[in-house]
Amino acid sequence: MGNLTLQEQLALRAQLTFKRNAYWRGENGPFCSRCLDTEMKLVRLHQDGPDLTPYCPSCRTQARDPNRPPDPPGRAITGDEGGEYDWMKN
Ligand SMILES: [Zn+2]
């Protein structure tokens, strides 16, 4: 990547589809939309974190799936909330 001619860039883009806030090349992907649109770089997104949101290791853009339903309330309680286990510390 990096020194593609305009023709090569257009050919590459013709192979890509944009879905779920990222680019896909058939079954390959997702790739970062920001890095491709601004720098013509295909950067494969990584999945990390509690909800496995794909993110770009280069520019940290997150590709959150717009069709993904929000987590039901009460499922993602972090350690600092609740407090019903305070008695265990004593
Ligand atoms: Zn990126």
Describe what this molecule looks like in 3D.
The chain is an alpha+beta fold. It has a domain at 6-55. It has 2 helices and 5 strands, in the order αβββαββ. The strands form 2 sheets. A 3-stranded antiparallel beta sheet has the order 1-2-3. A two-stranded antiparallel ribbon has the order 4-5. The chain is elongated, with a radius of gyration of 19 Å. The model has no long low-confidence stretch (mean pLDDT 83). The structure holds zinc ion.
Which labels suit this protein?
binds zinc ion; 19% helix; elongated; three-stranded antiparallel β-sheet; 5 strands; two-stranded antiparallel ribbon; alpha+beta; 2 helices; 90 residues
What's the layout of helices and strands?
Layout: H1 6-15, E1 17-19, E2 22-25, E3 28-31, H2 33-39, E4 46-48, E5 53-55
Antiparallel strand pairs: 1-2, 2-3, 4-5
Summing up helix and strand content along with how strands pair, one would put the structural category as: alpha+beta
Bound molecules: zinc ion
The largest pleated sheet is described as: 3 strands, antiparallel
Mean pLDDT: 83
Broad shape: elongated
Estimate percent helicity: 10-25%
Number of helix segments?
Answer: 2
Total strands: the figure is: 5
Order of helices and strands: HEEEHEE
First-last Cα distance: 58 Å
Q: C-alpha Rg, in Å?
A: 19 Å
Indicate the low-confidence ranges by residue numbers: none
Strand line-up across the major sheet: 1-2-3
**Strand fraction:** 15-25%
